[in-house]
Amino acid sequence: MAELPATPDPASPAQTAELRLVEQMAKRNPVFRHLGIVVEVAEPGHTRFAMHVRPDLTNTFGVGHGGIIFTLADMAFGFACNSSGERAMTASAAIDYLAPAPLEARLVADAREVARQGRNVFYDVVISVDGGDPIAIVRGRMKVLGGKVIADA
Fold first, then answer.
1. What is the pLDDT of residue 15?
2. Contact present, 36 and 75 (Cβ < 8 Å)
3. What is the pTM of this model?
4. Which of 13, 92, 107, 137 is deepest in the core (most CB within 10 A)?
5. CA 62 to chain centre
């Protein structure tokens, strides 16, 4: 299996703080680690995560399991919202599957904040194979709960 690229160097001090928080959240999240997700971008209102479709992440038909694809998207928009430092949780999300995720494919989830209304923050996530054509699109809503994301950070 090919190695995923290293996390790019952030461009600004604010991005550095957000990237550090995302990396701390990733270290504490066993699902993130189990899936082998890599952070490519962590900036205000935007993350891009990548992972490979391993054999143990496939469905009966030998393609990426839909739940795994959804989990990658949920992680991407959840981490994007929490990277501001204020605790938030997924309140709702819907996914449209457009194409299967082939075995060993490198999936890229690009999550972007599209709207804020009070304590609700909305994200669109496009999941693609190696940044090409989309294989799934997710619309997610985060509820900002308040408090620190990581109490001892």
1. 57
2. no
3. 0.87
4. 107
5. 23
The predicted pLDDT at position 102 comes to 97
Amino acid at 92: S
* Other CB atoms within 10 Å distance of the CB of residue 37: 23
Residue matched to tokens 């604010």: 14
- Residue at token pair 């699902």: 31
Q: Which amino acid is at 7?
A: T
- Token reading at 36: 């082998």
Q: Are 68 and 102 in contact (CB under 8 A)?
A: no
Write the pLDDT tens digit of every residue in 104-126: 999 999 999 999 999 999 999 99
What is the fold, at CATH topology level, of the domain defined by 13-148? Thiol Ester Dehydrase; Chain A (3.10.129)
Q: Give the start-to-end residue ranges of the domains of the chain.
A: 13-148
What pLDDT score was predicted for residue 20?
A: 85
Residue 110 CB partners (closer than 8 Å, separation 6+): 41, 46, 47, 48, 76, 125, 126, 127, 128
Cα radius of gyration (the chain): 15
What does the block give as tokens for 111? 């999550």
Q: Which pair of tokens denotes residue 88?
A: 């938030």
